[in-house]
Structures are given as C-alpha cells and as structure tokens.
Amino acid sequence: MEPGDHVGERFWIGEQVGAGGMGVVYKALDEETELPVALKVFTGRRDADVARARREAMAVAMLEHPNIVRHVASGLLPDGRLFLAMEWIEGLTVADRVDRAGFTLREAVATVRGLAAALAVAHDAGIVHRDVKPSNAILEGGDPTRAKLIDFGVARFGTVATSLTLAGLALGTPGYMAPEQVRGELDLTPATDVFGLGVLFYECATGSYTFTGDHAAALMAKVLFADPQPLGARCPEAPPQLVRLADAMLRKEAHLRPADGAAVVAALDAIGPIPDGPRRQLAQAPAPTVVAELGHCVALAAHGSPDDVGDPPPHDICAELGERAVEGGGRVEVLGTGALVAYFRSHPAAVLASAETWADRARALLPGWTVVVSGVRTDVEAAADAGGRALVKATIARVRQR
Fold first, then answer.
1. CA dist list (Å): 386 to 89, 229, 296
2. Can you tell me the distance from the alpha carbon of 130 to that of 185, in angstroms, rounded to the nearest whole number?
3. Distance, CA of 144 to chain centre
4. Among residues 30, 49, 131, 151, which one is catalytic?
5. Which of 303, 285, 314, 371 is nearest to 339 (CA)?
6. Is 54 strand, coil or helix?
7. pLDDT at 162
8. Which of 161, 216, 230, 336 has CB 3.0 to 4.6 Å from 186, enough for a Cys bridge?
9. pLDDT tens digits, residue range 297-319?
10. Could you give the dihedral angle defined by the CA atoms of residues 389, 390, 396 and 397, in that order, rounded to the nearest 10 degrees?
11. Residues of the chain with pLDDT under 70
C-alpha cells in the first residue's frame, strides 16, 4: 500500500507512521469528515491473526469513552485483509513521555485516573484489555489529563475464555503481565488490567521501571516472585493512601487488588488533592540501597529455546518438583510458555545447595530439557537476571553441540 491509495472508498492513504507484527498504521484522510485518521491495515493471515484483528475492531467499535480511542470505520480490502480506521490522536505515548520529559506525581495520577476510567467502561462491557502498558496509552496534545487507551488486539470478551490464548501460552507483554498471565491462566478478571495499570503508574510516578530483565524468562520470574520498592521509597511526596493503593494494584494475588477500573477511579477520588513534586524520567531515580541478609537462587527448566512455547511437564512431574522445591524452602511456578521457574531464598550458605538439588531432580525427570541455576545472588531480581542469561547461554551451547 502506497501514499495516495484509496481504502474503503473513503480514506486516502498518507504516510506510514507505525508497523508491528500485526499490521501497518498509516495517517490517512477521511473524505467524509476531511479529518485525519489512524488507519491500521492488518497483515497477518493465520486464523489467530484474523481473530485478533476482528477482536480489536469489535472492541474499539463497542466502547465509547473520552479516554478510549474512537472507532471511525472498519472493513475489508479487496485482497481480504481487514482495516481499522480510528481517530487520529495528535500526541505522544505514555512510554515516550516518561522516557523524555517524565511525569510529576500529580500528572501521573491524572493519567492513571483517565486510563482507569477507560478500563471501567471496558470492564463493565465484559472486556479485559490484557495488555495495559505505557506504549498502549496516548496523551492527546501531550496532556496527562487526556490519556487514551489503544490496542485491544489481545482483549478477552465475556466471562468465558473465548480468547486467542492457547493452553500453556502467556499472552501479553513481559514486565506488564500480571502473575496469572505469566502462568498462562485463561480465566482472567479485570484485576489483571489493574496490575498492568499499577506497573504503568509506578513507572510514571517514580521514573523507575517496575520490573526489568534481559530476557522474558527473567521478567516473568520477577513478576511472580519479586516486589518493587514501595512507591513511597521512590516518590516520598506520595500521600500514604496513594502508596497503599499503588502497592495494592501490584499484589501478586488477583483477589487482593482493586477489582476493576471503577474501583481504581473510586480509590483515587477518595484520596483528595495530589501534590505535584518533581518530574521524574525513567532510569534517573537510583534504587535504594538494599542490605542482603539472605541468598536468592532461581532455577529454570525449559524445553528447547527459552522463547519456545510448548506443553508443561505432566501433572505428576510438576507435583513432584513442586514438593522438592518446598522441601528446600522454595516454590515452583509453571510459566505460560510451559517452562518451570523455581525460586529459593534462605541463608546464603544453604540456598545454592537447595536450588542445585532441585535442578538435578528436574534434569532426571525432564530429559532433553535445559535446566540452569542462577547461583547465589543478593536479591530475587539479580537471581532472575542471572538465571535468564544462563538459560540463553546453555541453549546456545546445546544447539552448537548438535
């Protein structure tokens, strides 16, 4: 498709402004209104790709709210591809804003309140977004009070898991997925979106990433086992009620978070005036010093490449490895990719032995799998990073040996 092409007998294609795995986005002119639109042409041909495209078009068409991107039209191209025309939003994403200029606390709260209001409408319609993150929110005119939620491509409709998710597949963006998404659970609730919104808020308010890692496996391990520093430690001007709300939005257990977007809006409105404070950009706020009194180890077991998706081990093997981890003072989680992650925390002199004992049993029960141990680290974040790097290195070594 080239600039000047006509789409749907209504839209003239202009410049390409974005591209991704699902499609290409153009700035186009709507002949009916003489206004610019964002025209997304979906390029995927697989059944799952087509279903995702239709899902996004349906969600945007269903939901009307000032904080949700507005649907203009959708249809099919002559070659069968789906297109979706949405309002053109002149502005920048939350990801761009937090990286370039940063947010004050008051601006961060205003942005999150708008997005929570958007989610409240979606949740009331039975839709769970499942990919709430800074790059999926645009600030119209750069104004934090005019945030708009976009990209409903992986949204789930209704209370039944009639979604694109396959058994054993985590769907979302590592680092912003809730623990239940990391585990590949199908029956997700609006509290899943609350977690993603909590991650977004933490980053805007503190200028620090909530979870970081060199590899998806490390990020997933941190979401399951690690807690970020409390909001108050990085944003001291935050009122205690706001700190408690931010911590609650990031709870590992879905039932302990605010139930949905409406609950977040109500909680924010109950806090009252928010102080402004300094504007913080990502990566500029140093992490508080942590004195390590315990050792931390992460063991990872994956089939093939760490990015491969497959079936988890049989139930009896998962149960035995779970019991072995508990005996060593740890616990095991099955990731949505089918891989296993075991986390151990105890005295530095003992934690490595516990992790290695578990890894030896995993190698015996899972022939052909790659099993690694991070080694003793000062915190779970460092252990998860080391485990992810070790998994990649071990996988490359196995490939070279073939």
1. 41, 20, 11
2. 12
3. 21
4. 131
5. 303
6. helix
7. 42
8. 161
9. 999 999 876 667 788 999 999 99
10. 150
11. 21, 158-171, 283-293, 305-307, 399-402
What is the residue-wise DSSP string for 293-324?
-SEEEEEEEEESSTT---PPPPHHHHHHHHHH
Q: What is the pLDDT of residue 54?
A: 84
pLDDT at 168: 37
pTM of the model: 0.85
Return the pLDDT at 160.
41
E strands in 127-214: 127-128, 137-140, 147-149, 156-157
Tokens in use for 262?
A: 């409406």
Compute the radius of gyration of the chain from its Cα atoms: 22
List domains and CATH numbers for the chain: 6-87 (3.30.200.20), 91-271 (1.10.510.10), 295-401 (3.30.70.330)
Active site residue 151: no
Are the C-beta atoms of 156 and 128 separated by less than 8 Å? Answer: yes
DSSP annotation of 266 reads H
Contacts of residue 146, Cβ cutoff 8 Å, sequence gap at least 6:
66, 67, 91, 114, 139, 140
Q: Which two tokens stand for residue 195?
A: 């977690």
251 and 230 Cβ atoms separated by less than 8 Å: no
pLDDT in the model for residue 166: 37
